[in-house]
Design a protein that fits this description.
heterodimer, A: about 400 residues, alpha+beta, MetI-like fold, ten-stranded antiparallel sheet, 12 strands, about 50% helix, B: about 550 residues, mainly alpha, three-stranded antiparallel sheet, 22 helices, 3 strands
């Protein structure tokens, strides 16, 4: 009885882990795809079927070839071997015997000889059309044929023994590949899109917004939590109400404001309007309100000023709330896109933040997903690394908005 | 105790008295300056009405406050101190903001961005100094702790100074000094010093005692002082723009100087629709609608009669429809899996923290980056999503079925484009919602489940009768935030749609915010865009209200 219970428990737990893992796979896969693709060559990104890990074509130095030539898998006398592609676009005639047009033979045009000479080559009528007659070798026997089509093949030779040669379609051949990572994609995308400058801008904007919000929210939160003054509660209700108002309502007048004070295209427009957060003030107030009043009153009697009380007593006690607010504002500032798109709009690349650079990049490098995704990785990885280090605070910043709100 | 009481009752020193007299004189000056300014602003032609009004309000506060200060300070009443503080503090703040602006400190951030990378390593070392200081806390209460703290502090200070020099402190100061020769700048800096000085004079403890301050009054002044930085930002960057936005929505504001009052025109154009009965279902629209005003929005059939709907702004109605459709698709896709995952994560098995972290990952990544990744996942020829579908189809077909590969062209097909974006948005919201649900689940007392088990409830019954009702507040919150997020979708669509065409094939991904962006910042019809914003706000508000009502009704059943 107990045994069967634990077995059903085991089954249940396995099912739980299975479902969780399936979802985890779907959550992680786009990021893995991004990282893997960011190390690929452009050609590799368009390979079908798609492959996760980046691969490189294997090349070989050959005498008589200026550049290293790629290796392909070819069938040579029934055996699969690795041959080098030494010539592309070899003109190939598709020939067939007039008696049996379905069975075709691919031969280089130069290997076919005109029956009756080039000047008055024999002709034969097929389906109401006069076609010249050629002679080619099939299994060592000369056969009279007509040309029914033409194509272009690549010439593949055995690197060890150049005598051994195969002609086949280069596009449909499988290249010999090894795993090959190209971190240079990151350098390329940084050069192409000025990403180092946008990274600097993003860091600067994020630092400014985070510290600015901490400063105003701590002061404001303390005032709302602990200082009595006329109009406080009404003002607090107004603050709370504004959390609901969507940002898009403000976007046109804010843009006008930036035009008036000359901040369009300036980094200042990405920082200063965002260092006042009703949400942050609310968060700090909710935390400060939980700190016992007695501590504060004792300090007041000892002659401490309000600022001293705030910095010596309240701040050290509110590390969790500060960390929560920091992570929240960090993500907000680092990832914001709509406002930068609107306000840095005249192509001033110097003041682009990462998200804006990515937006431009996606148009400029639309044929190289490896570069685009390297750019995306530059934007996505820093918050992700910080997330892995300080996971707790991220999760708390999410839940605090719900439980306390 | 008694000695300190005596000390505070000590008569004010001559210095304090002199300071107060000085302040009195200063406020006579500010009164006169305020009145003079008022006269100047109304006599001199050439100011716009807005500047005149704003300046008048400011000057009235200045002179009114000053008059009050003079009268009450002379009588040594405490409200005189408050009036003086109000005037001087406001003057101080305006001077500071004005100086920062005129001296180019706000715009200097662009220069800082040029040089910031040279100094960033020192900023990092400064952080290391902080770390060194905290290491000292391991040796609580010993001399080592103090040594660590001192060492850490010095490392931090020195590296910060080096940082300042590396990023161009000297060049910056030089630029500021160059700007100082401007008379306006000099006036403003002088304003900082003078207003600041009188603020200090009035704020001082001896002055406060002179006016017989009470604790309540001190607390009140402190309250306003602490709130100011926040409140200024709130007024300039939130409340002001909010009111202004409403005003703009009643004008035909564009970026090129037109800004005439048009009343409700923007709203009537947005919302203007017309119904008409068709004689035949395929009758041409221009025979029955006034096509100079209305574009055909759609036709429908009701009780055997055909109707046609025309709209003055067809795209707006399309955008509303798409926004609602998007919310209807994205919300269940992100809430239902989140509920499932949260319940599984709540099972207290080992490794749950790992899964929670993995699910939360998309929430920390930039939407722009995510959308770029998904754009390639959705690629119809080499994308992984279609490859996955093809593989699945092949797998099924191996068992004898004959399913054809749908080969969906996700983002370039009218039917699937919006759904594709909704799937992506849901994917990035699931983790956040899971964490919220999990927090809600952990707040449900264990006792209730135990009681339910004793009563013989199976797991489904427990879920249905304990979890669901007790999770209702969390569910409500999750629903609200997700709906609000979904209805404001912009970045996801703007980036993921290929070919610089975010409106998608046949406007199938034109949402309200996207339409607002196109109107306001590509065609610069900002008055019209503001009207769209307010309609969007009302739609969101209505959706929220609807959920509030359902929540109230729902919770009533369990009370």
């Amino acid at each position: 009885m107990i045994k069967s219970y634990s077995f059903s428990q085991f089954l249940k737990n396995s099912a739980v882990y299975l479902i969780l893992s399936v979802f985890a796979f779907f959550m992680l896969f786009p990021f893995l795809f991004m990282l893997a693709t960011s190390f690929k060559t452009p050609k590799d990104t368009f390979n079908y079927p798609p492959r996760l890990l980046p691969r490189d074509a294997v090349t070989i130095e050959l005498e008589g070839q200026e550049e290293p030539v790629p290796l392909y898998f070819v069938d040579y006398e029934g055996q699969q071997e690795e041959f080098a592609l030494v010539q592309e676009g070899v003109r190939i005639g598709v020939f067939a015997s007039p008696d049996n047009l379905d069975e075709t033979f691919d031969r280089p045009i130069t290997e076919a000889t005109a029956v009756g000479g080039f000047v008055n080559q024999e002709k034969i009528e097929i389906n109401g059309e006069e076609l010249p007659v050629w002679e080619i070798e099939v299994d060592g026997e000369p056969v009279e044929v007509v040309q029914v089509g033409q194509t272009a093949f690549g010439r593949f030779i055995d690197p060890e023994n150049p005598e051994r040669e195969v002609l086949q379609n280069a596009r449909l051949s499988t290249p010999v590949e090894t795993f090959g990572f190209h971190p240079s994609n990151y350098e390329d995308v940084i050069d192409l899109q000025n990403m180092d400058r946008s990274l600097t801008n993003t860091i600067l904007v994020t630092l400014g917004v985070v510290f600015g919000v901490l400063f105003t929210s701590v002061l404001g939160g303390y005032a709302f939590a602990r200082l009595k003054f006329p109009g406080r509660d009404q003002l607090f209700v107004v603050y709370l109400g504004t959390i609901m108002i969507p940002f898009v309502v403000l976007i046109t007048p804010m843009y006008q404001l930036m035009v008036w004070i000359g901040w369009v295209d300036k980094i200042a427009s990405l920082i200063f309007p965002w260092i006042f957060s009703a949400y942050g003030t609310f968060l700090m107030r909710q935390f400060f309100i939980t700190i016992p009043k007695e501590v504060e009153e004792a300090a007041l009697i000892d002659g401490a000023s309000r600022l001293q009380i705030l910095t010596r007593i309240f701040l050290p006690a509110s590390t969790p709330a500060l960390a929560t607010l920091t992570t929240f504002m960090f993500l907000y500032a680092w990832n914001s896109f709509f406002w930068p798109l609107v306000v840095i709009n005249t192509g001033n690349y110097q003041n682009h933040v990462l998200t804006l650079s990515l937006n431009v990049l996606r148009g400029r490098a639309s044929d190289s997903p490896n570069l685009i995704l390297a750019g995306a990785a530059i934007a996505i990885l820093p918050p992700m690394i910080i997330f892995i280090l300080g996971q707790r605070f991220f999760v708390e910043s999410a839940t605090s908005s719900a439980v306390k709100g | 105790m008694s000695s300190s009481t005596i000390a505070t009752k000590k008569p004010p020193s001559d210095q304090t008295d002199m300071f107060v007299q000085l302040t009195l004189g200063w406020h006579v000056i500010t009164t006169l300056a305020g009145l003079g300014g008022l006269a100047y602003i109304w006599v001199t032609p050439g100011f716009s009405i807005w500047i005149q009004l704003a300046t008048t309000v400011a000057l009235l506060i200045l002179s009114g406050g000053s008059v009050a200060a003079v009268m009450w300070i002379a009588r040594r009443e405490h409200r005189g101190r408050m009036a003086s503080l109000l005037v001087n503090y406001l003057g101080f703040i305006l001077s500071v903001i004005g100086s920062l602006h005129v001296l180019g400190i706000f715009l200097g951030i662009d220069q800082l961005a040029n040089t910031f990378s040279r100094g960033v390593i020192w900023l990092f070392i400064m952080f290391l100094g902080y770390v060194v200081g905290t290491i000292g806390d391991r040796f609580e209460g010993t001399a080592t702790q103090r040594q660590f703290h001192t060492a850490g502090r010095w490392i931090a200070i020195i590296s910060f100074v080096i940082f300042l020099f590396r990023v161009g402190l000297l060049e910056g100061l030089q630029g500021i000094f160059n700007n100082l020769v401007d008379p306006i700048a000099m006036t403003l800096v002088a304003g900082i010093l003078i207003f600041g000085f009188f603020c200090w004079v009035m704020w001082r403890r001896p002055t406060a005692d002179l006016f017989g301050v009470t604790n309540t009054q001190t607390e009140m002044l402190n309250g306003y002082l602490f709130l100011t930085p926040n409140l200024i930002g709130f007024l300039i960057f939130f409340a002001g723009p909010l009111v202004f936005s409403l005003y703009v929505s009643f004008t035909n504001w564009d970026a090129f100087g037109t800004q005439d009052w048009v009343g409700l025109d923007n709203y009537t154009k947005l919302l203007n629709i017309d119904f008409a009965v068709l004689d035949a279902p395929d009758q041409r629209a221009n025979e029955i609608l006034d096509v100079t005003i209305y574009d055909e929005l759609g036709r429908f059939n009701l009780f055997g009669r055909s109707y046609i709907v025309g709209a003055a702004d067809k795209l707006f109605w399309i955008s509303i429809w798409n926004t609602l459709k998007f919310a209807v698709m994205a919300v269940p896709l992100s809430v239902i899996p989140a509920l499932l995952l949260a319940n599984l994560l709540n099972s207290k098995l080992p490794g749950m923290k790992f899964f929670r972290a993995v699910y939360f990952l998309p929430s920390v990544a930039a939407v722009v980056g995510i959308a770029l990744v998904w754009q390639w996942l959705y690629n119809s020829t080499v994308g992984y999503i279609n490859y996955g579908i093809t593989s699945l189809v092949n797998l099924i077909n191996m068992f004898g079925a004959s399913v054809t590969d749908p080969e969906i062209r996700w983002l370039s097909n009218t039917d699937t484009a919006l759904l594709s974006v909704a799937i992506m948005t849901a994917w990035r919201l699931i983790g956040f919602n899971t964490v919220l649900f999990l927090a809600g689940l952990q707040n449900i007392p264990k006792v209730l489940y135990e009681a339910a088990t004793v009563d013989g409830a199976n797991e489904y019954q427990q879920f249905r009768n304990v979890t669901v009702p007790l999770l209702a507040p969390t569910t409500f919150f999750v629903m609200i935030t997700t709906v609000v997020t979904a209805m404001q979708v912009f970045e996801d669509i703007f980036i993921v749609m290929p070919g610089q065409n975010p409106a998608g094939p046949g406007n199938s991904t034109l949402t309200m915010v996207l339409y607002l962006y196109q109107k306001g910042f590509q065609r610069f019809e900002q008055g019209y865009a503001s009207a769209i914003a307010w309609v969007l706000f009302l739609v969101i508000f209505a959706a929220t209200l609807l959920q509030f009502q359902r929540q109230r009704r729902g919770s009533g059943a369990y009370d």
